[in-house]
Amino acid sequence: MHFAICSSHFSYLNTPNFPPFITLLFNLSLFPLFSSAFFPPFKRKEETMVVHSQSAALDHCSLIKTCKPTTSVFKGIPVVDLRDPEAKNLIVKTCEEYGFFKLVNHGVPMEFFTRLEAEALKFFNLPQSEKDKAGPPDPFGYGFKKIGSNGDVGWVEYLLLNTNPQITSLKSLTVFRETPEIFRSSAVNDYIQAVKRMTFEVVELLADGLKIEPRDALSRLLRDEKSDSCFRLNHYPPCPELQALGGRNLIGFGEHTDPQIISVLRSNNTSGLQICLRDKTWVSVPPDQTSFFINVGDALQVMTNGRLRSVRHRVLAESMRSRVSMIYFGGPPLSEKIAPLASLMAKAEESLYEEFTWWEYKTSAYKSRLGDYRLGLFEKKTGGAAGQ
Ligand SMILES: O=C(O)CCC(=O)C(=O)O
């Protein structure tokens, strides 16, 4: 497959000292773990049609799944204003109902987003051979079409980064010694730091709304210096060949839930994101580059004993416009036990899940396909667990 590639090169390479971002950037490969970056499917019949080169034009998308066209736009998208005195209750309500909401008035300057988007596009517009030097993802690094190592593919290229600058991957350093400086460190750092601060506030409000005590029971996991959080930049190039699919949609990023506690997504103004409602219908989320979209992750579902539900979502490719998205996945430290929070449990309420650590969950998820219902393996057999 070959994505449309522009010829921009980095002019600011060859810096003798690695900028901090480079260290931040591929540092990651010491942990054979991942994020929602990890992967793969649920045998959803409606999505099992695979593009087998119906025409030469479609060779680019061969083996990528398609799905039936979905025309419904999510009109009632829940919106939370972070400065609204009622925000804590709204967050709880929408996370119970959808596991998803749009966040406005969040205080993160637009400039952070536009700078990072520009840096990301500089990278994604490099020749393929240059980008490949930053891959294959292990799971961190540059990935192209392949999502994870279990056979999932999508119309996407991405950079998966660890957010912990303490962890340095030799491979990453090597990669970047041989290639131009790709990002200005400040663009990534400023964005991640600002998004993290905002996320801490969101989960503390959520804790207030749920009457979780102490109120930092969730945020401390994300603030922890060993927090296993990561950051992903996705690029979905336009796919003009889509017309040849006879009205079907091409999958950019296959359906999945995010395994972490919470994910915070921002994209440019190109559509593509869809979420699955409780009645199993897929709805398109209108893009809004000024806002964040927040997803409940699997770990938060467990910590609330199924009261909040992780949201199944996916991205469809667009024929004319490229989509750029950036997602912060807030996860706990690897050794953290993931179990319902005591202050949330009613008297005699039992956990719906077996006890496990974040490491165990990731290890298990790593072996799964993107769309698998990964929590299924950890549900107690008796007790009518939350299920999907
Ligand atoms: O690119 C998007 O908008 C969402 C991607 C996503 O779900 C992911 O990277 O886990």
TrEMBL record:
Pfam families attached to this UniProt entry: 2OG-FeII_Oxy, DIOX_N
Pathway named in the protein's UniProt entry: Hormone biosynthesis; Plant hormone biosynthesis; gibberellin biosynthesis
SUPFAM superfamilies for this protein: Clavaminate synthase-like
InterPro entries (alphabetical): DIOX_N, IPNS-like_FE2OG_OXY, IPNS-like_sf, Iron_ascorbate_oxido_reductase, Oxoglu/Fe-dep_dioxygenase_dom
Top-level lineage group: Eukaryota
GO function terms (MF aspect): gibberellin 2-beta-dioxygenase activity; metal ion binding
Residue stretches making up the Fe2OG dioxygenase domain: 226-332
Record's function text: Catalyzes the 2-beta-hydroxylation of several biologically active gibberellins, leading to the homeostatic regulation of their endogenous level. Catabolism of gibberellins (GAs) plays a central role in plant development. Converts GA9/GA20 to GA51/GA29 and GA4/GA1 to GA34/GA8.
Family the UniProt entry places it in: Belongs to the iron/ascorbate-dependent oxidoreductase family. GA2OX subfamily.
Name the UniProt record assigns to this protein: gibberellin 2beta-dioxygenase
Organism listed in the record: Gossypium barbadense
